[in-house]
Specification:
This protein is mostly beta strands. The protein contains no helices and 4 strands. The chain has one domain. It has a 4-stranded antiparallel beta sheet, with no helix packed on it. It is elongated, with a radius of gyration of 11 Å.
C-alpha cells in the first residue's frame, strides 16, 4: 500500500496513470480519503532502492 503524503492515509492505491522516467517507475495516484493527487517514484539507482513522492 502507498501512504498519502498529504493526509497519511495508507489506502492511497488509486492509480490514474503510470510511466517510466529514467531509472524510476512513476505512478500518478489519488488518495481515496482526501482526494489529492501525487506522483509516486520508485526505482533503483546504484543498487539502492529509492522511493519518493511529489505532491501535485
Amino acid at each position: 500500500m502507498t501512504k498519502c503524503p498529504y493526509c497519511g492515509h495508507d489506502g492511497a492505491d488509486k492509480v490514474l496513470k503510470s510511466w517510466r522516467f529514467r531509472f524510476y517507475d512513476v505512478r500518478r495516484m489519488e488518495c481515496e480519503k482526501c482526494g489529492k493527487k501525487f506522483n509516486h517514484y520508485k526505482g533503483t539507482s546504484g543498487g539502492k532502492i529509492s522511493e519518493f513522492f511529489i505532491k501535485m
